[in-house]
Amino acid sequence: MIVLGIETSCDETAASIVENKRGVFNVRSNVISSQIKIHAKTGGVVPEVAAREHIKNILPVVDQALREGKAIPKDIDAIAVTTGPGLITSLIVGVETAKTLSHVWNKPIVSVNHIEAHLYANFADNKKVGFPVLALIVSGGHTELIFMEKHGHYKLIGKTRDDAAGEAFDKVAKIMKLGYPGGPIISKLANKGNSTAFNLPRPMLKDKSYDFSFSGLKTAVLYESQSKKHNFKSKTIIADMSASFEQATVDVLIQKTTKAAKEHNVKTVLLAGGVAANKKLRADLEKEIKKEIPKVNFLLPDLDYCTDNAAMIAVAGYFHAKKKNFTPIDKIKVDPNWELS
Ligand code: KG4
Ligand code: ZN
After folding, report:
1. Domains, the chain, ranges and CATH?
2. What is the rounded radius of gyration, in angstroms, for the C-alpha atoms of the chain?
3. How many other CB atoms are found less than 10 A from the CB of residue 137?
4. CA distance 164 to 140
5. In the sheet where 109-113 sits, what is the strand order?
6. pLDDT tens digit string along 28-65?
7. pTM, whole model, 2 decimals?
8. Ligand 1, from 169, 253, 271, 281: best to mutate by most atoms within 8 Å of Cβ?
9. 273 lines ligand 1 (CB under 6 A)
């Protein structure tokens, strides 16, 4: 089966051709047109600007995905498109494009949840995934722990009560005037810093729930930066704060995830979403799981599939298409707040 994936939920216009032959995935193309440079000027995504960029880029991106994936419309079995959650005007561009292509090419549409797709990024490189699964999804818009009994069955067991982890990285970078998106910048600076230089809070760690909160941590960084105690123009101070903030965030994520994995007796723990590209989180979570629950298999998505991309949409779409879980064109709905569960 060959699936064309389309993703426009935030600030990346993406299309991908993914083939599945006898259960084995082959990502034949994975094209992403990033708007990062445009949104860097405003320090974050302006929805109206993002939607206009998607409109400009979507057809050339789909065209490039077909060419690089050596596919013609006739070869495609299904079109998988993100219908939520995300920015409504951005989502509409991908969905209307998918509807038009579906009509012209006479191909069925699979409606894909963006969070589900992040999780399914872990299936793109054909690792063996034993169920039940616990997934930690950490992106710019979401921080969630999801328990998955089997394919397509999700139970949300914890989520952030305020900022998402990626959002906190972005806001902390803005406080220190480092640029956008903050995650990769802070992570790079953190390598040169001392993670115990600042004593930052580990929010919700003592709370019995699996919920998270990152807004207080961000405010703690703001207060430190406003106090006269430290010079936030100094490279050393910025590196130390980056390392301290990254460590505090990672500590909370790994402790809650490990506790949830133990209590739910899972076979596999998956990491997913843009923040899954963070090297410290990848390494520390793996170490903690190996130490605390060595029987559990820990899986990470390839770095190419952590931040927003359309290969993950096509992979998630494949599992729905296999079950003929298609949506007729006139029933497709964009749902900016679609929750997985
Ligand atoms: O999944 P994604 O591309 O978009 C959403 O669905 O939100 O995630 C983007 C988020 C941004 O907040 C970005 O700062 C963060 O992922 N991110 C990182 C790293 N790379 C991207 N955060 C921490 N460390 C990184 N290396
Ligand atoms: Zn995402």
Report:
1. 2-121+305-331 (3.30.420.40), 131-301 (3.30.420.40)
2. 20
3. 27
4. 6
5. 24-34, 12-21, 2-7, 78-84, 109-113
6. 999 999 998 999 888 889 999 999 999 999 999 999 99
7. 0.95
8. 169
9. yes
